[in-house]
Design goal:
It contains 10 helices and no strands. It is mainly alpha-helical.
Length: about 260
């Protein structure tokens, strides 16, 4: 693969880490992403993900644990509260990384490392998610921010595009679960450093969509979503207002008579 492909890929990883931190303001969260990437890099270097006969396929480790953790986060009240507090602008900015990723996949297709279906020469139109993310960022910075419905529709549409390419990739990996593209399978993501694509980048993109949808459903119409941290401040104000309302609404207790 040409040098520019490596540059694009590591640029996507850097963008992922920077905006993940801006969204969470948590070194711990970013450290977990780095640790997750290092863990899968070691496994890929040892050839675990090139095992084509094992069942269940070891490649399931790339996505299943993170997907399960995200599901648990959504089910727990504290997890939902955390997702709801994240700023929409930073969550939207995460998706810009899909532009360099799609360019990498196109180069990989030309190098024979992924099937045509995983590039924009085939049925992968996920690059539109990255391009539209830039537009959404500019729109969110505008005083006439997009409505809640527009933001929800955009996140859902981009989520569908993500599921299409991920589903194609999973069914194309040489493994006991492979079902399509046997003539040119998806061998890219089983090697270093490209294993970071399903191990880190895809989970972060999925998390950003889920967090944004949870926040939009919980908050209602967004206001001033273009400001960093506006999401947290809005939720905090709402919680304080609800607390004051609850205390005001509570009837005064009647003293007991002896």
């Amino acid at each position: 693969m040409p040098t520019v492909t490596y540059i694009l890929f590591f640029a996507a990883i850097l963008w992922c880490l920077v905006w993940s931190y801006r969204a969470t303001r948590s070194i711990v969260f970013v450290s977990l992403l780095v640790a997750l990437g290092a863990f899968h890099t070691v496994l890929a270097a040892r050839g675990l993900y090139t095992n084509t006969t094992a069942f269940p396929p070891p490649q399931v480790l790339l996505l299943a644990p993170v997907g399960l953790a995200l599901l648990v986060c959504i089910m727990l009240q504290r997890g939902r509260a955390w997702l709801n507090s994240l700023p929409l602008f930073a969550l939207t900015a995460v998706h810009v990384l899909r532009i360099p990723v799609e360019l990498v996949l196109h180069n990989a297709y030309e190098a024979g490392l992924v099937p045509r279906d995983m590039s924009y020469s085939g049925f992968n139109f996920d690059i539109l998610s990255g391009i539209s993310a830039v537009v959404m960022m500019l729109w969110l910075r505008n005083k006439n921010a997009p409505s809640r419905g527009v933001l929800i529709a955009w996140n859902v549409a981009c989520l569908v595009l993500l599921f299409i390419v991920v589903g194609t990739a999973v069914l194309s990996i040489p493994s006991s679960a492979q079902r399509i593209n046997f003539e040119q399978p998806n061998v890219l993501v089983t090697a270093v450093p490209w294993v970071l694509l399903p191990a880190v980048l895809v989970p972060v993109v999925l998390w950003a969509h889920v967090a944004a949808l949870c926040a939009l459903i919980a908050r209602g119409k967004p206001t001033a979503v273009g400001k960093q941290g506006a999401g947290r401040r809005a939720v905090a104000c709402q919680l304080r207002a609800q607390s004051r309302t609850t205390r005001t609404a509570q009837p005064s207790s009647t003293p007991r008579t002896r």
